[in-house]
Amino acid sequence: MLLTALLPLSLVVQANHGKDGKSEPSVLGSVADATTKKPVSGVTVSITCAKMQGEKEVITDASGNFKIPQICSGEVTIVLEKKGYKTYRKEGVVLKEGMSLKLNFDIRLEGDDDSEVFHPLLRMMDGEKK
Of 104, 108, 119, 126, which is most buried, counting CB atoms within 10 Å of its CB? Predict the structure, then answer.
């Protein structure tokens, strides 16, 4: 019973050994459209951490997949950006030495908001009252 609970974790966390023999964290995953669930290519995935100057950036491939190797351990911030989509920001992700973290993200189109769905209807109703 315990073995089946731990099996998925073993597939997510793997060692990534750097040039000096130390294990360096990496982040990999995929990005999909929140509505259609289809992969989104061309998304810029950026990772920053306090120990690292600047940021590491990659672009998702045609299948929406990405991999960022050799990241510093500690707390990182992940940002996803693509024209036409809302910027997604995930802060406080903790990477441990030797950890490979798999993350799957859903991003939303700009203007894809529940509150905006009713605006045209409300405008039509306002026009009828005049």
Answer: 108
For residues 97 and 64, which has the higher predicted lDDT (pLDDT)? 64
Dist CA 71 CA 95 (whole Å):
8
Over residues 24-79, the pLDDT tens digits come to: 789 999 999 999 999 999 999 999 987 777 789 999 999 999 999 988 888 999 99
Domains of the chain: total: 1
Instruction: Give the C-alpha separation, 47 to 91, whole Å.
Output: 10
The domain in which residue 116 lies consists of 2-129
What is the distance between the alpha carbons of residues 42 and 44, in angstroms, rounded to a whole number?
Answer: 6
Q: Is 27 left (phi over 0), alpha (psi -120 to 50) or beta?
A: beta
Beta strand residue intervals within the chain, DSSP E: 26-33, 44-49, 56-59, 65-68, 74-81, 88-95, 100-107
Separation of alpha carbons 43 and 60, rounded Å: 5
Structure tokens at 113: 């908001």
Q: How many CB atoms lie within 10 A of CB 112?
A: 14
